[in-house]
Amino acid sequence: MSLPNINPTTTNSWKKLQEHFNQVNNMHMKDLFAQDSERANKFTIKWDDFYVDFSKNRITEETFKYLLELANEVKLKEAIESQFSGEKINQTEGRSVLHTALRAKKDAEFYVDGVNVIPEIYQVKHKIESFTNEVVNGDRKGFTGKPFTDIVNIGIGGSDLGPAMVVESLQYYKNHLTTHFVSNVDGDHVNEVIKKLNPETTLFVVVSKTFTTQETLSNANTIKDWFLKLATEDAIAKHFVAVSTNIESVKNFGIDQNNIFPMWDWVGGRFSLWSAVGLSISLAVGYDNFDSLLKGANKMDEHFKNEDFKTNIPVVLALISVWYNNFFKAESEAVIGYSQYLNQFATYLQQGIMESNGKSVDRNGDAIDYQTGTLIWGEPGTNSQHAFFQLIHQGTKLIPADFIGFVKSLHGNKNHQDKLISNFLAQTEALLNGKTKQEVIDEGTSKEIIPFKVFKGNKPTNTIFINKLTPKSLGKLIAMYEHKIFVQGIIWNIFSYDQFGVELGKQLASKILKEFNSDKITNHESSTNNLLEYYKKLR
Ligand code: F6P
Questions:
Q1: Is 87 in the active site?
Q2: Of 415, 416, 402, 410, which is closest to residue 465 (Cα–Cα)?
Q3: Do 365 and 227 sit in the same domain of this protein?
Q4: Residues 258-264: contacts with CB within 8 Å, 24+ apart?
Q5: Are residues 284 and 405 in the same domain?
Q6: What is the residue with the minimal CA distance to atom 10 of ligand 1?
Q7: What is the pLDDT of residues 100-134, one digit of tens each?
Q8: Staple 338 to which of 362, 405, 432, 433, CB 3.0 to 4.6 Å?
Q9: What is the active site of this protein (predicted)?
Q10: Is 289 in the pocket of ligand 1 (CB under 6 A)?
């Protein structure tokens, strides 16, 4: 069975939403709150340690009803079942999509081509666990007999962003090992990292699903060459491990068979941090914390799979986002984490959301005439308040935003936490209410300045309030966005799990690389010819 194939714009609910939009698009959320004292309760989902308030959106009960109808009309329930049951819903690559299996319980069953993959997943998890314990406890040693002090994750895209974001987010839970990430093919990146390292005490984790990625192989080779200037060939077995589906190429690179952590083609790169791709997470925070991260994600999976759509957090967030994207024509969404630990969260989501849903052809291969993937961006609050919030408050663009906050701070500084959370709450209130001309006048503002101090308000936000940032709650949060991506892909009738759009640039880059040593370049259009010649002359 394949995914449903329904053009959302042909559904009854879409048509109802369009008509409804024409009636309500000018309404102010302030009025909606004034008319219904129960509004916040109606549009809040309390689940586990999550409190998700989506009442500060430009929706009414009618909007919500039609959005839920849309989910049913595009056969979302069936699509969810197809994904979880291991059907090859990544049709363009002929693959199942089973990152959810990676965090499933040991007695679960997930089938790929008739084979339950859970036992294999647990074998790899045990390997991650024992390897982590050996490194963290100092039982595994480098070539001069010293325990490891530093870990370097060498990877890019999904083989970098997920682990890097989680290690940053769970900094509080970190052990004594220092973790570094090398991703960019920019040699200055790898050199900046190398200069801090002692080869005797550094472990290198080369992560590449395909083991063909230019950036990762270049960085891994540069690091290997540097390492071999200071150590002998047999030391590689002690210092280099790899995570990949391409076992042969890993061996050809010179990595010991025992140091290979397998992954599978039914795990998409941007959804892979739950697999051995998360080895650097496990090393950084310990296996138990890594396992808690997985358990949290599994809890969100169960919620997503079983909960009614109207109280299903990823479904509701996805539907609201479609409302803005396709009816209000909002171009982008912001994600603002009120925690410095979430510093890299938006960057991580950029790949998840934009690589998955940045598509313009539907599941029939036909060009589509409605908007798909949103642009995603963000920085932590309160820093972002002093950077780009001006535009969200008073600019001309509609930017729906997710506000993510944690009730408790990790270091327990109540004074700072109260200030942080007062900002977290104040911003969504300010975005909702704005400030009227009368309020500006009442503040005693001089007449000529009044227009500049008026805020229209009516700017939508979701508040995702979580008790505490723990490995488990982070797992739930990441999985929540993964499922939101899936729901939106289903509604937009696109394939969310391929990424052919990144190939063309890669192919041209390898062609251009060969041309740097050739004579006069004339085979491109004049702009690229000129730029190439310019570089050749000055490099
Ligand atoms: O950018 C394209 C992409 O294929 C991503 O989807 C992936 O996460 C990244 O490259 C890295 O790929 P690999 O893990 O195979 O090196």
A1: no
A2: 402
A3: no
A4: 261/124, 261/127, 261/128, 261/131, 262/124, 263/124, 263/209, 264/98, 264/112, 264/117, 264/120
A5: no
A6: 157
A7: 999 999 999 999 999 999 999 999 999 999 999 99
A8: 405
A9: 355 (proton donor), 386, 506
A10: no
Residue 297, domain member (yes or no): no
Does residue 483 carry a catalytic annotation?
Answer: no
Residues 259 and 336 in one domain: no
Pairing of strands 332-338, 50-53: unpaired
Please state the domain count of the chain.
3
Residues 245 and 367 in one domain: no
106, two tokens: 């040991």
This model of the complex carries an ipTM of 0.98
Marked catalytic residue, from 176, 386, 514, 537: 386
Q: Is the predicted pLDDT of residue 1 greater than 70, yes or no?
A: no
Same domain, 379 and 505: no
Residue 148 DSSP symbol:
P
Which range marks the domain in which residue 528 is found?
Answer: 501-538
* Residue closest by Cα to atom 13 of ligand 1: 208
What is the rounded distance in angstroms from the CA atom of residue 237 to the CA atom of residue 256? 5
Buried-state track 325-351, b at ≥16 Cβ within 10 A, e below 16 = bbbeebebbbbbbbbebbbbbbbbbbb
Closest CA to 325 of 398, 393, 428, 433: 398
**167 and 39 belong to one structural domain:** no
